[in-house]
């Protein structure tokens, strides 16, 4: 049996305990790169798409109930992998975007990830309309971050009360 706290156990005794090494069942397989159910390993992140849409706050709660939080996409290669994963799940062509883990709710105009780290602005991440102001727009009103299917999977700020699908992230085992 494997437990997160003690690793592999034999009859509830840690395999590293003295005298236990004589039991062949104490051999350990690596758990590096594995994700807990219902998450899938996508590049370097454990990712799960929730089947229901939520507002931003409820999306964070829903991710928390599966052992994660909203996904952070701060690496361009990983960002591309996650977009490919979303499209492979057959959920790509809905006009409803996905909540991801960023906002400027703490300080207007200072976009940060939910872990407090600063967010890169502009392309390739943020949407850039042919007409009008580039994203993020509507300061003071739209404070939560979505991965917009209408903007070719670019970041877009929107109302936190809007309903969006959700991409959760959890730590690999």
UniProtKB/TrEMBL annotation:
Domain C-type lectin residues, every copy: 42-169
InterPro entries per record: C-type_lectin-like, C-type_lectin-like/link_sf, Ca-Dep_Lectins_ImmuneDev, CTDL_fold
SUPFAM superfamilies per record: C-type lectin-like
Listed Pfam families: Lectin_C
Name of the protein this chain belongs to: Perlucin-like protein
Organism (species): Hyalella azteca
Classification lineage: Eukaryota, Metazoa, Ecdysozoa, Arthropoda, Crustacea
Designated gene of the protein: LOC108670639
